[in-house]
Protein: UDP-N-acetylglucosamine 2-epimerase (non-hydrolyzing)
Organism: Desulfitobacterium dichloroeliminans
Amino acid sequence: MEGKKVMVVFGTRPEAIKMAPVVQALKKSAVCCEVAVTAQHREMLDQVLELFKIHPDYDLNLMQAGQTLTDITTRALDGLKEVLEKAKPDIVLVHGDTTTTFVAALAAYYAHIPIGHVEAGLRTGQKYSPFPEEMNRKLAGALADLHFAPTTTAKNNLLHEGIDELKVLVTGNTVIDALLETVKSDYTFADPSLRSLLKATEGQRMILVTTHRRENLGEPMRQIYRALADVLDHYPDTYVVFPVHKNPSVRQVVEEVLGQNSRVHLIEPMDYEPFVNLMAQSNIILTDSGGIQEEAPSLGVPVLVVRDTTERPEAVEAGTVALVGTSYEKVFEKLNRLLSDKEVYQDMAHATNPYGDGQASERIVAAMVKFLS
């Protein structure tokens, strides 16, 4: 195995979180591991790199104010072409469904370098939902040589598309590896205002909220927030913590609908470590995030997903996640039921997590070593 090199490429916080345990496992293996980041998201990426002590060998530092998908795609493709020419890896490992994922796979394909795709096979079957993630993931999958599917459902999606079964390995999801390493029962939040809030609300129920999806901007978000505000009127023992995405289009609607509500605590986006520990202390999570659908089941926290589709149906089938859409009526109804019906709440909270045992990274690395040997 001497001289064999794996290049891990990512560009956003979710990718970094899910690839960090893979990088750590590769560093302990018989192969050389180098890391290239596009920094498609800069600040949010850096705090994950620091947490997991990852020092990129190549950093394209692409993020610019007002960047478009075309901007990211073209700059990343040019930058990664140069990186691959210099590094000459034996395989490129990408993750998930970001623009960086697709572009890194394309750059590797152009350079005739094999590609491994972590978290392969997730599908909604709808081209523009989520946008652009659905097609990023499919296009990366079309180029990949090894497919690391987190679940059997994801594997079956790949087989349905004609992928050779010998090239697909069900591993579990690496986000569970990262989560189990990060959540602590005795965790202390560094933010004094958050510590004070949690102390002052001890014994009350917390709804943790995150929203950022492009397809939810505007009226869908307004409906979600109105339903949330009206539910709080019915339950005086319940409050909301809402780390608000930096997108001005999100912030405008949040401030308009929830800004004056005394039981909605709007805070800045959180670093990964305090955020997952806050998840562990919450009672309900309302989100349009993909990763949270995988993480929260390991913490025993019910998740209501404010989207019309999900590429993660396993959690819905297992009962840990409910897909509720974005209409006022559906969001209000589902929140109200979870808050009022203890049996329904317990059924969701104690459902089995379908996303693995925290050993996905070890399985991926073993397969990579076998492939390279």
Summary: The CA atoms of residues 1 and 370 lie 10 Å apart. The chain has two domains: 5-172+358-372, 192-350.
